[in-house]
Write a structure and sequence with these properties.
heterotrimer; A mainly alpha (253); B mainly alpha (250); C alpha/beta (268); A: 253 residues; mainly alpha; MetI-like fold; globular; C: 268 residues; alpha/beta; Rossmann fold; 6-stranded mixed beta sheet; 4-stranded antiparallel beta sheet; transport (chain B); MetI-like (chain B)
Chain lengths: 253, 250, 268
């Protein structure tokens, strides 16, 4: 017996993809292929290796950028959360970065670092880093005072308190910051491929648009959105699995 | 932070960073970073020019329209999802998906469907903003006190009246929270849209400055843009705090 | 006022004969212009339970945290076993009002955490922790997480953690205020037994008059604005009696009434 929730998810998918199919058959626009055509194109590209090569290319700046953002983001965030001076000095930068449309920096990055991997990694980093830093700093700052006092009263050293109390206590929020960072990183990676130089999936999108192979274009877009959503879902599940008790445990009832 | 017993305001360190920028610029380390003073001088010159005003008004128009559609569509959909379980279960997976999906990938589709103009940029902006508005509105409606709804029914409120007299107001703090995040996302959306469809607004201006190596022009426009975006987000945060009082006392 | 004024009427025990485990001397604590504690002196006899009782704002938790070394006094000093202290030490263990359990750690790790921070080997500290988990009545919950426990059980974990480091002095900051009334009564009875069986000194902050009179060998009544010790009461008549009969004892009821009479004007 399939659960109601899953049944409805399938029903919902059928409705949306059905509407796509019908809209494509009318067609609402010469540039709007049917769902089935797009899926055929997707399967074709998946089997002839086009997608595999493309993703190898697309994931490179994404993975490098996310790694750099995570390591530096968590490090800086931890420092900001622990030190009032550092907080005063660096928080404003990341608060402004978080609110500002950093994508506008892309033209300058291209001029400074060319159209290669470096620029694309940079784009991923500026998109992903602020949320990682701000989440980490906030989580570190909001460690419940009483557990820190507990650590102190049971003779924990400063290092003990950071590694055994502050970091574990902050890790759920740090992790969700990472998830948001990855989500922003995906936006940056694709933006970089569409804006800087068409490589990887961005290349499939741009090229198939230029030769009016719309099913292939839609298939590539469909695949990158699916990949991002599935990956973020996976991260969310890991998060729930790792920190289930932790999150609920804060209730002081 | 406090120095010599004086409490320094939160964002005051930006002055220090501006100073650092000026020094780096004066040292002439890199062509890409002109001194801040030079940028500010350019800024005062650029602000009055017709090309800047045109870019600003085009961007403001796209942004306002995008946010308008996101709010006008997003809030009712969110209320509907919060009230009706079937709608909720049918729509929620998609809302969650688009909330975290790389929406930049959809811009090329918008370009082929709606052309290389304003329409595509407005839709991009709406797409960036709408999902969080729907989700927050839904969350706001879901936490409405049951007895408030029962009160409305017992006094004979019609469904539509209940919709606008009870649900909207009871969920207002969450809705405003969603609108605030939505608007911050919309700022990013409108710029990303203009960068990819680079023939209107600031997208075109950036292209022009970058190809002519007008560094201080570029930074000047960037400063204006960042300042505007930051002000918008701070004003909204302030407004949200003003209604926070009744979020607590509901 | 340097020394607390001691009411002769209830003062029946000779304090000078008892050795003090903790002594607070002229302790003051200011937060900017606010005086949280002003020139407070108090003695805590060894092996006994002393309550700090008073309306909110009287500085009872501040004093406890200064004794625990978590706060630094602006002036004055704290002596533990005759030696001045100004930081947390192995001679004192703290029980927190909100339990201060680590939500990501199970019961046994929480209980053994004090020993873990002291560098005790894992097998050894877990053996000690297991003993105290059983002592507080949580046998079988070693692998549970705090969110799976009720409020009362969580505070038992906090108590087991304090006991497992084997400190001379137990500092309890309103430990039962976050648990329900019935659990609280059970806790109070257990605490009486604990004071009798363990040779430890207890310093107990509470805002419940009945609780203070029920469990204490000595009650220090603190009053706010300015913060001071207004009275020290040593209930003696019913201390050796059965836990069930204390609440019907005339002396118990008298003391409760008297304390309420002196505190009622401070309650808003």
């Amino acid at each position: 017996m399939v659960s109601r929730s899953l049944q409805l998810k399938i029903l919902s998918a059928i409705i949306v993809f059905g509407a796509w199919e019908i809209a494509g058959r009318i067609p609402v626009s010469y540039a709007f292929p049917t769902f089935i055509d797009s899926m055929v194109a997707l399967v074709r590209m998946a089997f002839d290796g086009t997608l595999l090569v493309a993703y190898g290319e697309t994931l490179k700046p994404l993975v490098v950028g996310i790694l750099i953002s995570s390591i530096f983001g968590i490090g800086i965030g931890l420092w900001i959360g622990l030190s009032e001076k550092f907080d005063w000095l660096f928080s404003p930068i990341f608060i402004v970065m978080q609110a500002a449309p950093l994508a506008a920096l892309i033209p300058i990055l291209v001029m400074a670092y060319g159209i290669g991997l470096t620029s694309k990694v940079f784009v991923v980093c500026i998109m992903a880093m602020p949320v990682i830093v701000l989440n980490t700093a906030g989580a570190v700052r909001n460690t419940p005072a009483s557990i820190k006092e507990m650590g102190k009263s049971y003779l924990g050293s400063d290092m003990d308190i950071i590694t055994k109390i502050i970091l574990p206590s902050a890790s759920p929020v740090i992790f969700s910051g990472l998830r948001l960072g990855v989500s922003a990183g995906f936006i940056g990676a694709i933006l970089a491929e569409l804006k800087i130089t068409p490589t990887g999936v961005g290349d499939i999108i741009t090229y198939s648009r230029s030769i009016a192979d719309y099913p292939a274009m839609y298939a590539a877009i469909f695949s990158i959105i699916m990949l991002a959503v599935l990956f973020l879902n996976l991260l969310e599940r890991i998060e729930v699995y790792l920190f289930e008790g932790n999150v609920r445990g804060y209730a002081s009832d | 932070m406090t120095v010599f017993g004086i409490r320094l305001p939160a964002m005051s360190s930006l002055i220090l960073w501006a100073l650092l920028w000026e020094i780096v610029g004066q040292l002439d380390l890199t062509f890409f970073i002109p001194p801040l003073s030079e940028v500010v001088v350019t800024l005062t010159g650029v602000i009055g020019t017709s090309s800047f005003l045109k870019a600003l008004s085009e961007t403001a128009y796209a942004f306002a329209m995008g946010v308008f559609f996101a709010v006008v569509i997003g809030i009712p959909v969110g209320i509907l999802m919060g009230k009706n379980r079937l709608t909720d279960e049918l729509l929620l997976p998609w809302v969650n998906m688009f909330l975290s999906a790389p929406l930049t990938a959809l811009v090329p589709v918008l370009m082929v469907l709606f052309g290389f103009g304003m329409k595509s940029i407005i839709i991009t902006t709406t797409l960036f903003a709408i999902w969080i508005i729907i989700l927050n509105t839904r969350a706001g409606v879901l936490q409405i006190n049951r007895s408030l709804v029962e009160m409305a029914h017992s006094y004979g409120a019609k469904p539509l009246a209940a919709f606008y007299k009870i649900y909207f107001w009871a969920a207002l703090p969450e809705i405003l929270g969603g609108v605030r995040i939505g608007i911050i996302r919309a700022v990013k959306g409108v710029i990303i849209g203009q960068l990819l469809i680079s023939i209107v607004g600031f997208g075109a201006l950036f292209e022009l400055y970058a190809s002519n190596f007008l560094m201080s022009h570029f930074w000047a426009v960037l400063i204006v843009l960042f300042a505007l975006a930051f002000s918008v987000s701070e004003i909204l945060a302030y407004m949200e705090r003003r209604v926070a009082y009744y979020a607590a006392s509901r | 006022m340097v020394m607390p004024q001691i009411k002769e009427a209830v003062m029946q025990l000779d304090v000078s004969g008892t050795e003090n485990a903790v002594v607070a001397r002229n302790v003051s604590k200011n937060y900017g212009k606010v005086e949280a504690l002003k020139n407070m002196s108090l003695e805590f006899p060894r092996g006994q339970l002393t309550s700090l009782l008073g309306p909110s704002g009287c500085g009872k938790t501040t004093l406890l945290k200064i004794i625990g070394g978590l706060l630094q006094p602006t002036s004055g000093e704290i002596e533990v076993n005759g030696k001045p202290v100004n930081a947390p030490g192995p001679d004192r263990a703290f029980v927190f009002q909100d339990f201060a359990l680590m939500p990501w750690a199970n019961v046994i790790r929480n209980v053994a955490f004090g020993l873990e921070l002291r560098g005790v080997a894992k097998s050894e500290r877990e053996a000690i922790a297991e003993k105290y988990i059983a002592d507080v009545g949580l046998k079988g919950f070693e692998k549970s997480y705090p969110h799976e426990l009720s409020g009362g059980m969580r505070q038992r974990v906090g108590l087991a953690r304090a006991l497992s480091v084997d400190a001379d002095v137990l500092l309890m900051d309103e430990p039962f205020s976050a648990v329900d009334e019935q659990t609280r009564r059970k806790f109070q009875e257990d605490l009486l037994r604990l004071v009798q069986n363990e040779n430890k000194t207890f310093i107990f902050v509470t805002h419940s008059i009945e609780e203070a009179v029920y469990v204490s060998d000595q009650i220090a009544i603190l009053l706010p604005r300015p913060s001071r010790v207004s009275e020290i009461i040593r209930p003696t008549g019913f201390r050796s009696m059965d836990a069930d009969t204390i609440r019907r004892n005339p002396e118990y009821l008298d003391i409760v009434d008297r304390i309420w009479a002196s505190l009622r004007s401070y309650v808003e």
